[in-house]
Design a protein that fits this description.
The complex is a heterodimer of chains A (about 300) and B (about 350). Chain A contains 12 helices and 14 strands. Chain A is of the alpha/beta class. In chain A, the strands form 3 sheets. Chain A has a 6-stranded mixed β-sheet with strand order 6-7-8-3-9-10, sandwiched between helices. In chain A, strands 2-1-4-5 form a 4-stranded antiparallel β-sheet, covered by helices on one side. Chain A has a 4-stranded antiparallel β-sheet with strand order 12-13-11-14, with no helix packed on it. In chain A, α6 links the parallel β7 and β8. The longest helix of chain A is centred in the middle third of the chain and has 15 residues. Chain B has about 350 residues and is of the alpha/beta class. Chain B has 2 domains: about 230 residues, no CATH class; about 90 residues, 3-Layer(aba) Sandwich (D-Maltodextrin-Binding Protein, domain 2), CATH 3.40.190. In chain B, α2 runs antiparallel to α6, α2 packs across α8 and α9 packs parallel to α13. The longest helix of chain B is centred in the middle third of the chain and has 31 residues. The two termini of chain B are about 30 Å apart. Classes of the chains: A alpha/beta (about 300), B alpha/beta (about 350). Chains A and B meet through α3 of A and α1 and α7 of B.
Chain lengths: ~300, ~350
């Protein structure tokens, strides 16, 4: 599969802060590509350089082998992380406004159906809920029927139900063979949507690949959790199992064998929880700090 | 310039303005309130400074200097070599009293409350002077102050309506979102400028027409000339608003800058009182303010029946200012997306 975007040795420095530090990657046509990392990792800076919104301190971005120029705005769709819409315009008027900016646009009724805007098409932008607003912003990103769509943290601030609805919209768009570049700090979102991911922290890429490849590369184990009160201390020390709050974390390469061992030692399996490693675990393993801690810290 | 994109932004901005009922209401209500209020209150006794014109005998001559009236505080004395000009100034409220000490005559403008008051002060010492009424057609204070109030309202609408809106758009990333489309800065700025020009002219016309029903304004000149000078003035003020808002993302800063631009105009552009007799430095400074030329031009059309040729100095000044503000504003303009 051919690369549609090439990022080469990209750097962005703000006074004394290095936001992006010499990163390179390729994005294949038709893929959903995820830029993952906590707040302040450099994701938004990277994506905005790719969109041509801000300039790089050094390095370059190539679209189909050519440097970014002004014509790129006709070919890409963008959903920013923080964008206000013009007050007092309805959803339909906002779609009309943005349609007028492009040479060719997608049929409005098709766009309305694709992004599920029908219920609030004549509502004032100021009266939209978070989920409705994000769907409108997605529609604006798709209005010129772009080959490449940039979505910067599109589900931040949405409730779980709205997030899942939004994921389905992105899957529908992906099914149309469009290339999607997505930034997120929700690892479950990346696992659901992305074919390839780059994990960033403090402006550098710390890992890249498909989510499955990265998880199998870094984790051979399945995690089993049991309440601490059910596990004899002697057994825990022998097996070098870790304590995670009120629970014991058992890393196992063979779940069947581990469960047999527990039953042989008369350990009750009540409250048993089994989980595979996810990208959040991977981030924790690679950086020594979790995304959740970063978010709480940021608050 | 893509006309389709330009018209789309122009239309969107107009919809935004006309649907904002509170802002629309205030834009209509404010000038009417000022006209009504200041016509009857401000002109009564609110102003401490009076202007007295002197003809035949100048203020450095002994006959004038010996008069106790000449030493009264808060009165400016202005020499006139032309009697006709002095009478015109009195009839148009630029001065409040005209005195000829050698011939022991004075003239008042009976439609001016200030003329009435200063006459009382004058008569305390000079009871033997002959009282005469101003020659030529008198105008009411409301006719004199009308271009100033409408001009001031236009100034606030142009400066704040453009400056604040652009900074708000920039701060809330509306500009960033627009930048991500093929819309050019020129198309965006032109649409903002012409949208505001349309809004200001529309609102001013509504206010003028509505108030005219009650006040029956004096009008010696042509409405076409008045509209031309109003459009040029508004264009110049909008350009100044664009220049002020060309870069900043801070509403506090832009508020300060807009106040810095508007207050000198409000005080020194002849909105409330004439600059007749003011120090030369103040007059020169006022000449660099677009509102000065808008108000002076409109006032001459209304009260003197001046044509565009007669007020070509003001027309030229507004054209030059608009060009300078637009060129510098376009050069400095930033979507300001780089953090």
């Amino acid at each position: 599969m051919t690369s549609v975007i090439s990022v080469e040795s990209l750097n962005k420095v703000y006074k004394d802060v290095v936001a992006v530090n010499n990163i390179s990657f390729e994005i294949k046509a038709g893929h959903c590509f995820g830029l993952l990392g906590p707040n302040g990792a450099g994701k938004t800076t990277t994506i905005e350089i790719m969109e041509g919104i801000i300039s790089a301190s050094s390095g370059r971005v190539l679209y189909k082998g050519k440097p970014v120029d002004e014509s790129i705005s006709q070919q890409i769709g963008i959903q920013f992380q923080h964008t206000a819409l013009q007050d007092f315009l309805t959803v339909k008027e906002t779609l009309n406004l943005f349609s007028s900016f492009y040479q060719s646009t997608i049929a409005q009724d098709k766009l309305v159906t694709l992004c599920d805007l029908d219920d609030f098409l004549h509502r004032d932008n100021r009266l939209l809920s978070g989920g409705q607003r994000q769907r409108l912003l997605l529609a604006l990103a798709l209005i010129n029927d772009p080959e490449i769509i940039f979505l910067d943290e599109p589900t931040t601030g949405l409730d779980p139900h709205a997030r899942r609805n939004f994921w389905q919209l992105i899957k529908n768009i992906k099914a149309q063979n469009k290339t999607i570049v997505l930034t997120t700090h929700y690892m479950d979102e990346a696992e659901q949507l992305c074919d390839d991911v780059v994990i960033m922290d403090k402006g550098i890429i710390i890992e890249s690949g498909t989510p499955h490849h990265l998880l199998t590369k870094h984790f051979k184990d399945i995690f089993i959790y049991l309440p601490i009160c059910q596990i004899p201390e002697q057994l825990m020390l022998e097996q070098q199992w870790k304590l995670q709050g009120e629970r014991v974390e058992i890393a196992s390469r063979n779940v069947e064998q581990t469960l047999s061992l527990l039953m042989k030692n008369n350990v009750s399996l009540e409250g048993l929880h089994i989980k595979s490693a996810n990208l959040d675990d991977l981030f924790l393993k690679l950086t020594g700090h979790s995304l959740v801690e970063e978010d709480i810290g940021a608050l | 310039m893509n006309i389709k994109r330009f018209l789309a932004v122009f239309k969107a901005r107009n919809i935004e303005f006309f649907r904002d009922k509170s802002s629309l209401g205030w834009n209509l209500f404010f000038p009417v309130l000022l006209l009504a209020g200041f016509t009857f209150i401000f002109s009564g006794d609110g102003q401490a400074i009076y202007k007295v014109g002197l003809i035949d005998a100048l203020k450095n001559e002994a006959v004038v200097e010996q008069s106790a009236f000449f030493k009264t505080k808060h009165i400016d004395f202005i020499d006139y070599k032309s009697t006709d000009l002095a009478h015109l100034k009195l009839s148009q409220h630029n001065i409040d009293l005209l005195v000829n000490f050698k011939q022991q005559k004075y003239w008042v403008n009976e439609s001016s409350p200030k003329s009435y008051l200063i006459e009382k002060v004058f008569l305390a010492e000079h009871r033997n002077f002959k009282r005469l009424l101003t020659q030529g057609e008198k105008i009411r204070y409301v006719d004199w102050v009308l271009p100033g109030i409408l001009g001031m309202n236009m100034m606030f609408s142009c400066l704040f309506g453009v400056g604040y809106v652009i900074v708000r758009y920039r701060k809330s990333s509306v500009l960033k979102r627009l930048k991500a489309t093929p819309l050019s800065a020129f198309e965006f700025v032109s649409a903002q400028l012409l949208s505001r020009l349309f809004i200001v002219m529309f609102m001013t016309s509504v206010v003028y027409t509505g108030c005219n029903l009650f006040f029956d304004f004096y009008m010696l000149g042509s409405y076409f000339d008045l509209i031309v000078i109003a459009i040029l003035g508004a264009f110049s003020l909008i350009s100044l608003g664009l220049l002020v808002a060309s870069r900043s993302k801070s509403e506090e800063l832009i508020g300060g800058l807009l106040n810095l631009s508007s207050w000198p105009m409000m005080m020194l552009s002849g909105v409330w009182f004439s600059l007749e007799g003011a120090p030369q430095g103040i007059k020169i400074f006022a000449d660099f303010l677009p509102l000065t030329h808008l108000v002076a031009g409109a006032r001459k059309v209304i009260t003197e029946g001046a044509t565009l040729v007669d007020i070509s100095y003001h027309v030229s000044a507004l054209l030059v200012m608009s060009t300078v503000f637009l060129v510098v504003g376009s050069y400095l303009f930033s979507w300001n997306t780089d953090r």
